[in-house]
Amino acid sequence: MKILFYDTKNYDKESFQETLKTGAFPDITIEYTKSDLDPRTAALADGFDAVCAFVSSNVGTQTMEILHEKKISLILMRCAGFNNVDLETAAKYGIRVMRVPGYSPEAVAEHAMALALASNRRLYKAYNKVRENDFSLSGLMGFNFYEKTAGIIGTGKIGAAMCRICRGFGMKVIAYDVYQNESLKEFVEYVSLEQLLSDSDVISLHCPLMDSTYHMINIDTIKQMKDGVILVNTSRGALVKTDDLIEGIRMHKFAGVGLDVYEEETNNVFEDRSDEILEHSTTARLLSFPNVMITSHQGFFTREALGAIAATTLQNAADFVAGKDSPNDVKIG
Ligand code: NAD
């Protein structure tokens, strides 16, 4: 099987080539292009059997029509999401779509804890101070996480990993979710959202962005939080209403805020977008506060997660070649 791999970054190529080198997928060859998949670049797939695409790709109707003309029979999404794929047109042409539903929840949860710790102890400020020969401790006071309360909103794969990490720190772990995760019952107490907001010293968001979670952190919910709370969001930017967060920061509600995601992020989350961020006023305003730390949607970005993405994507291709059904098939409905 010949795969054309779109939107290639060096780290993608490295992890896929490493996985191919294991010899586990002898029938698969990959060619890489830096271009992302869209109606202008779909014709590059001429002569290939499959394409590999990402969250940033445009796999809409027009792209799908061209892929069908070029006799592509498999679209390998190397991510969990598939909101950018026209599944109906894929089904019409018999093009199979497969994805990587989960790769490394710990990668994101560890980054969430890193953000919580870095903003609590002002590590970014400490780093800069010491580099400038300023060894004073002013402005660096934090609080112990040990015996404090962690409030985890959303206890699916990543939230559960975050609960385990918080337990490891000796924290009391409380959680809010619309469904309770049985595997956590031994050490996590499920509470109402109101109680979680009022009791937590560290709040970490791990639920998906949906109508029901859009702007769940707003001025009303912020007011219910303890003064001096740490808020971390590694989930989706629009869970937090940024203007209200800024108001909360001005009210001195937060000891620290750690964000890996922010409202202005486009769909194209992994592009180079430094100019875009600076143009966007709310993100730039957030960056002006000394107790806010922002990273660039890097929660997933570990060697292990990239390795898992490569292994699952190639296994999906192998299952396709073998004519096997797979739980990683993306179907309509
Ligand atoms: P998951 O589906 O395993 O878990 C999501 C949990 O949220 C579920 O338990 C669900 O019941 C719960 N939930 C749904 N609606 C809720 C509500 N209204 N209130 C509280 N909880 C609710 O998903 P996951 O794999 O743990 O991923 C969580 C989120 O992390 C994803 O939706 C994605 O936005 C984000 N993510 C970020 C990165 C990154 O690099 N920063 C990488 C992967 C995923």
Instruction: Tell me the β content.
Output: 15-25%
Broad CATH class of the largest domain: Alpha Beta
Amino-to-carboxy terminus distance: 29 Å
What is the ordering of alpha helices and beta strands? EHEEHEHEHHEHEEHEHEHEHHEH
Number of helices: 12
Small-molecule components bound? nicotinamide-adenine-dinucleotide
Q: Determine the oligomeric state from the structure.
A: single chain
Q: Fraction of residues in helices? A: 25-40%
Plain-language structure description:
This protein is α/β, with parallel strands linked by helices and 333 residues long. The longest helix has 19 residues, at 303-321. It has twelve helices and twelve strands. It has helices at 10-21, 61-69, 87-92, 105-120, 123-131, 157-168, 193-199, 219-224, 242-250, 274-279, 281-287, 303-321; strands at 2-5, 29-32, 50-53, 74-77, 96-98, 149-153, 172-176, 188-190, 202-205, 229-233, 254-259, 292-294. Mean pLDDT is 94; it is low at 267-272. The chain has a seven-stranded parallel sheet, with helices on both faces. β10, α9 (242-250) and β11 (254-259) form a beta-alpha-beta unit. The two termini are 29 Å apart. It folds into two domains: 2-103 and 302-322, Rossmann fold (3-Layer(aba) Sandwich); 105-294, Rossmann fold. The structure holds nicotinamide-adenine-dinucleotide. Nicotinamide-adenine-dinucleotide binds at residues 102, 105, 108, 153-159, 176-179, 206-208, 212-213, 234-236, 260-261, 297, 299-300.
